[in-house]
Each structure stands twice: as C-alpha cells, then as structure tokens.
Specification:
GO terms for molecular function: ATP binding; glutamine synthetase activity. The chain is of the alpha+beta class. It contains nine helices and 14 strands.
Length: 354
C-alpha cells in the first residue's frame, strides 16, 4: 500500500455532565476516502466492556491545517454496530432530521463560542496569589496588561481559516484569559459541525502551548463574567423586508409556555451559576426579550429594530452547550410555531367571510 495521507477521526464521547472530544488517526492510501471505522466505547463512556464496539460514521470532513497538505479532519457520528442506528450520545442525527423538516425556512445560525484559557489551575492573567484588577479593560483589550493568550488565539484563527471553517471573528472577552470565536452564519447542522471542529482545533492548538482551553460556564466564582455560547438565529422570513413581525413571533415562540424551561434544560451545564441576572445575563428562571438588551434572555440587535428585519440572539446557551441540541431546539421551536400560525391564517379568513 502506498501511504499518502492521514485522516484524524473525531467524535463526541459519553462523558457526563460535559462530553469530551476524542480522536484517533487512520493512515490511508492515495485516493482512498475515509470510511466507517470503530472504537472501544467502554473507554469513552459509550458502551459496556462485554459489548464495547461502536461505529464511527464520517459526517463532515475538512483539511487538517496542523499536518500535511493532503491530511484531513473527519468529524464523525457515533452509531451502533449491526443496525447503524444513532448511538444515545449521537445528537447530530436528530439535528439533521429537524433541519430537513424545516429547510424551506432556510434557517441560519451564528454561534459565539466563549472559552477560558487555564494554566496550572488558574486562568491566564490571574496571579499565583490573589486576583488581577477588576473587569473593565480586558474586553477587546490591547496590551500585555489586558490580554493573555493572543498567540494561541491567532494560531487557532489561522487554523480554522485554513480548514475552511465558517469562522467569522474573534475577540478577547470580559474576564482575563477569556476569549471568543464566532462561527457562521450557516445552516442548522453546518454551524454545529463547524463549531465542534473549531473546538477540536482550539483544544489541539492550546495543547501545543501547554494550556487548557475550557468551556466551563462559570470559570471563576465571584464578580467575574461567565462563559456562554450566544446563538444568533434567523429564518428567510425574518431576514426579508417586513421581517419584524417574524422576529417578534420568534421571540414569542421561544417564550411560549413550557418552552423556556425546555430550552434552559438543554442549554448546557452550569446554568444556575452563570445565568444569575448579573454579568450581562437574564436570570435562568425568567424569560424576556428586548432591543439591544444584554440583560435579556433574547436580544434583538438595534440595527434589526431600525431595519425592521434581521435576526435574534439567544443569550442563554452556556459555553459547554451541544450545538446540535441548541440549533435543533431553536429551529424546531421557531419554525414549528411559524408553521402553525401560517396554517391558521386561511381558517381565520374563511371564518371572517362567514
């Protein structure tokens, strides 16, 4: 066999409460495509030892920016051997079903992934003893006293661009050692694929610097900002001229009876620590939306209020949320409500004629 390139198979494991990313390398001959593979699920909290085989099914492939020009990264769904049914930890499969169901709405997402660099048990920029100066100068800061870890961020951004991911920006966040990268706008499944791959590259590059990139929702107790994954969303109806009514309808759908609790439950670990009503959050037990309000559950950007069209930002998801779950829920909640409303309109008109 002529050895030509490496494929790094990547998947999400069954660790609780926050799943981990796993990967292993397969060497393939020139011209061969990455196919299904397997792994020991008993070592990843995904199978018992007496029946440990799990299947890796490639779902998204992109260039590997950390290796050679022919090498690739292969994001996989975990499936069961024999039946090929989605494993219980496979949240992508359900996301694909929802995306296909509501594809006529042409949903678009942009996700703002916040994270914190840790080294030797403390965030970068935190002294060995005590604390740094209070929050204020660090957000989008410039200078050695305000910014910590920029070399890692630059390497990660370049890698995401070289991999062809839909990365659209980065910035230093409110707490020292805390950063953000943005993925999108792309579709319901695509944004989640790209975000998971962006996370993988972040972890992998930080590893080379001897630093841990953490997506814990409240990295430091006290008067420090938490880490979220603000999720921007729109449908073609919201983006079109006259889309304001659809924007308000989307906010109302997210706040309909039972929906706030359903979403909060699925928006990641650490909600009660992060969504306290302080530090640019609404309290986890309430739901409200507003224009340019970073203390709301859902923010409508000011420009959208002026243009009367655009998108909304769900500020509740935690940094450690599963993007397949979050995008599926938002797509289903908003598009289902819009479908019901559309179906009810002809009946209302018919009743009016009578």
């Amino acid at each position: 066999m002529t050895v030509a390139y490496r494929a790094e198979y990547i998947w999400i494991d069954g660790t609780k409460p926050i799943p981990l990313m796993r990967s292993k390398t397969k060497v393939l001959a020139d011209g061969a495509k990455p196919g299904t593979w397997g792994f020991d699920g008993s070592s990843t909290n995904q199978a018992p030892g007496h029946n440990s085989d799990c299947v890796l099914e490639p779902s998204f492939t992109c260039p590997d920016p950390l290796r050679g020009p022919k090498d690739v990264l292969v994001l996989c769904e975990v499936r069961l051997p024999g039946t090929n049914e989605p494993h219980a930890t496979n949240t992508r499969a359900a996301c694909v079903v929802t995306a296909n169901k509501y594809k006529s709405f042409e949903p678009l997402f942009g996700i703002e992934q916040e994270y914190t660099f840790f080294k030797e048990g403390r965030p970068l920029g935190f002294p060995v003893n005590g604390y740094p100066a209070p929050q204020g100068p660090y957000y989008c800061g410039v200078g050695a006293d305000e910014v910590f870890g920029r070399d890692i961020v630059e390497a990660h951004t370049t890698a995401c661009m070289d991999a062809g991911l839909a990365i659209s920006g980065t910035n230093a966040e409110v707490m020292p050692g805390q950063w953000e990268f943005q993925i999108g706008p792309v579709g319901t499944v695509e944004v989640a694929d790209h975000l998971w791959m962006g996370r993988y590259l972040l972890y992998r590059i930080a590893e080379d610097f001897g630093v841990n990139a953490s997506i814990i929702a409240k990295p430091m107790r006290g008067d420090w900002n938490g880490a979220g994954a603000h999720t921007n969303f729109s449908t073609k109806q919201m983006r079109a001229n006259g889309g304001w009514d659809h924007i308000i309808a989307a906010c109302e759908a997210l706040g309909a009876p039972g929906k706030p609790a359903e979403h909060i439950e699925a928006y990641g670990v650490g909600t009660e620590d992060r969504l306290t009503g302080a530090h640019e959050t609404a309290h986890w037990s309430t739901f409200k939306y507003g224009v340019s309000d970073r203390g709301a559950s859902v923010r409508i950007p000011w420009q959208c209020a002026i243009d009367k069209k655009g998108y909304i930002e769900d500020r509740r998801p935690n940094a450690n949320m599963d993007p397949y779950v979050v995008t599926r829920l938002i797509t289903n909640t908003v598009c289902e409500a819009a479908s019901v409303a559309k179906a009810a309109k002809p009946q209302a008109k018919a009743g009016a004629k009578k």
